TrEMBL record:
The keyword Signal applies. Transmembrane segments: none annotated. InterPro entries: Bact_solute-bd_prot1, SBP. It comes from Amycolatopsis dendrobii. It holds the Pfam family SBP_bac_1. This is Extracellular solute-binding protein.
Amino acid sequence: MSRPWSPAVPRRTFALLAAAGLVLGTTACGGGGDPGSSAGGKVTITVTGQPPTSQPFERGVFDADVKEFEAAHPNIKIEPHEGFMDPKTFGAKLAGGQLEDVYYVYFTDPAQIIARHQAADITEAARKVPHVNDLKPELLDNFRGPDGKLYGLPTMNYTMGLLYSRPLFRKAGLDPDKPPRTWDEVRAAAKKISALGNGIVGYADYSKNNQGGWHLTGWLASMGGSVARKDGGKWVADFDNEKGRAALNLLHDLRWTDDSMGSKQLLEAQDVQRMMGAGQLGMYMAAPDNVPVLVKQFNGKYEDYGIAGMPDGKGTLLGGEGYMINPKASPEKIKAGLEWIQWKYLNPDRFEKHIKQYVDGKQPVGLPAEPTPDVWQGAVRDQQLALKAKYANVPAQNYQSYVDSTSRIKGSVEPPNAQQVYAILDSVMQAVLTDRNANIDQQLSTASAKVTSVLAQVK
């Protein structure tokens, strides 16, 4: 499915994603279909995920990792390809023998890929991969098929939270070290922040380009609900209910009763980020990757932002990315591909070195999801958090509420055919945020029928 702006992949900038889709669609590879080994006994594998030259730090780290990996694994040669995943070209590349041996996926894609037999079964091979059992089980489950077999590995994870302006909290008489824990507290804080005047908005939300539907899914998750559920083996819509009404009624009250969301609506990510970067916004729903975007693209300061767990704490929307392996790959290529994925992305032995790369490159260390991924549990997660605290160069304490919440709030993955679902739900968000008298029951009923129809296409 197409992600022109890709909410599901938080650590990629929108520009990068657009470029990635173009690069991935035109890359010539020759990998995947051949059986595999080059002269001298080396196994050559093609891999996606190389950042573009427009991101020199990230590109430099990736290329250096390739050289280091090849030096440590003289029997494996890595042939990196720029870009990530363009769902529009994926099937054609696979059929034409041009899909890379190791390819990147969003969390919304594995179920469909597995159903279409477009990924290799790595169940047995993965048993020998170090630290697989230290990964969060719910993330691994996203790469399991109905047969219980494993078809990929997660390499990055995010959950939604509440991003807020610490300076505006202080100006409004709120404690920035005690962010809202419920939606009622968000509403109360938004009223106080909006009361500061001068065009300041207490709370903002997205409502177009599929982003409104994505955020409405986050609202439902926080209240213990969901957009979709399985009923007798089939997916159906699951929001035309009390939880759906509660979410939309609260949005309505924030917008119309309290006037805490401002008059300008039909916003998307860049609009809201621009408001926050300019010091004109108190809060919005976001993943931690938004913080460096605010700093690097919208003139913000790391010390000005905090992140809390999702209000109400009954759930949160979970997203991320991972890697799968071409179903045509030979056993040798599967083994080599798993060695690359583990060494590059899932390697606690390289935590400290990777963090130091960020420190030396004057990149932020101490944010919840960077520079090492939040995919771990138990002792490995403790090791990771200790190292990030040791080398932190941003105020990590500002994000502690979010970090604490991720260990206790259950995350739910995005629905199948997510972008089509989000497009339908955009209209619901737009109606509530632009029409004081919008019929919420009618909006939910109409959208539910459309979403169920879209979900019926899921195999």
